[in-house]
Amino acid sequence: MPWNSPGKFSIISAFMPKKHVLIVAGDPSGDLHGAALAQALKALDPDVALSVLGGTHLRQAADHFLYPLVGLGGFGFWEPVLKLPHLWRAWRAVRAVLRTDPPNVVIPIDYYGFNIHVARLAKRHCIPVVYYISPQVWASRPQRTRALAKVLSKMLVIFPFEVDLYRQAGVPVRFVGHPLLDLVPAPSQPNGILSIGLLPGSRWSIVERHLPILIQTARELRKSFPDAQFTLFRPLDIAESRYLPWLEKVSWLRLTHDPVYEQRKKLSLAITVSGTAALENTLLGIPMIVMYKLSALTYAIAKRVIQVPYVAIPNILAGKPLVPELLQADAVPEKLAAAARSLLENPESGRRMRQELLSLRSQLGEGGSVQTAAQEIAPFLAT
Question: How sure is the predictor about 4, in pLDDT bands with cuts at 50, 70 and 90?
């Protein structure tokens, strides 16, 4: 059986190199940053063999691709239950490689619900675990740091405020900087063209929930700004064909995949889901409205467990409501359009938001995150 066929776990130990790394990423941003880390590890030592569970980016970087974990979705508190058969196959792939060809080090990336089990199993096999990109335990369940403390050899964090959280839990921790600093280009100056971007998410289940809301929001805004350009941004892992039924009656809405931010950096305003997209907009200095809508059950649970005052990363970094957050019942076209209209009709507010967003960049390090992370991981390959 080919080693790189998903769900096939036949491994010939005699042919595996002495330096072997297992990387596990379960979401699109983790897949992207994991691939960059994989390349940095190869640059340090070309003899390292990389086995991965991930998505499109990690598949390209891997020596051995074990399972397409990123494509599973299952975000939330109960939604992953629907993906259990696929998660079980991914888990079998992890168990097989740890048993048959134990890596020198296991690198989980974010994705706590699956990766905590990976880390525990690696610990039982006496394999070091270096976690790259902390799950957002500080937002909802900080007690999870105690569970991580029992199994981690090291935590590599990308936000400076995460250091104390792990240090207090007794976890060896290093702030390596945010990997987006090396991916997002320098911001552009506004070009005078009113351009509005819609960013509904990176997983199809999330996109499907937000897309009709954002399209109707754009319709509302066109009434006030008929000459505005509207662009809908599509991530690499979602096929263009999935968007086309939604776009049949909105020919004025342009669909684009923009991996190097060439279109995004020209935006006058973004209406975006919270998460990585909001941080990308921050680094580009794009004024934004942040929105999110969860299933009713997930939202009811989230209200009980979320322990931070803000959802959007720029607001968390700023320590204040720098960008508007319209969540759940407020994430409706009328309110989103009104918030966007308020910014667009007051250019000075947009300029202030842009400058404050750009000022947050210095909190995220000086670049070279994946190279620093690779250097932190390198000593575990020498054992």
Answer: very low
